[in-house]
Amino acid sequence: MPTSIDGILRALGDALGDRILQTGTLRPEKVLVQVDVGAHRDAIEVLLKQDENAGVSAITGVDLGKTIKLLYHIRACNTIITISVELPKENAKIESITDLIPGANFHEREVSDLFWCNL
User: Fold this and answer.
1) 5-115, what's its fold?
2) Cα torsion at 72, 74, 80, 81 (round to 10°)?
């Protein structure tokens, strides 16, 4: 099980390929991975394979005008990996992750209420 940031990014890259739009290390213990719509679930599945105790710390929504950015803050492998997805505001639909991480339910409902996203 890779526990380094490089190992996590490599595992995500192997699984998602060109569905990863951008990656970055914000701090030594915090990574940002922007993915295509729909790839967020695959990214979270990769993190769960890396760390079976992975969980959602928060889901943040940001209104960017024409789009809504959802940031899934996942605690895994002793770091926080943020999976970022941008949705068009006029069709803000994205598949839920509660079947993968049941504890995400509260966070998804909050984002849905505040940003009118269909989760």
Assistant:
1) Beta Polymerase; domain 2 (3.30.460)
2) -60
